[in-house]
Design a protein that fits this description.
With 94 residues, this protein is of the alpha+beta class. It has helices at residues 16-23, 27-36, 53-63, 68-75, and strands spanning 13-14, 43-44, 49-52, 82-86, 89-92. The strands form two sheets. It has a three-stranded antiparallel β-sheet with strand order 1-3-2. A two-stranded antiparallel sheet has the order 4-5. A hairpin with a 4-residue loop joins β2 and β3 (49-52).
Length: 94
């Protein structure tokens, strides 16, 4: 799925269908992740759920993994680069 096909204004709160499309998964997958507590942050308005686009971007970044054979090599090269995203805060290794 090409995200360029869809117009997602910055900082918009997306419903489950649009958030799933943005992430490239089905709405059912997003719902399952929410029940399991493994998906992106969301806002619960009672019977309505919304996702902030920025939270989706951060959650996607947190899912990125290095291949096992490159992890040790690149770990020593991350000085000054972003190495961890936690609770919407970017931290840097010193």
């Amino acid at each position: 799925m090409n995200l360029v096909e869809y117009d997602f204004p910055p900082r918009q709160r997306l419903n489950q269908k649009l958030a799933a499309r943005y992430l490239g998964v089905s709405p059912e997958t997003l719902s399952r992740w929410r029940r399991q507590g493994t998906g992106p942050r969301y806002i619960d308005y009672g019977s309505t759920v919304r996702y902030c686009q920025g939270d989706l971007d951060i959650w996607l970044a947190m899912q990125a993994r290095e291949p096992a054979h490159r992890s040790a090599q690149t770990a020593s090269q991350t000085s000054g680069q972003i190495v961890h995203i936690n609770e919407l805060r970017l931290t840097r290794r010193k």
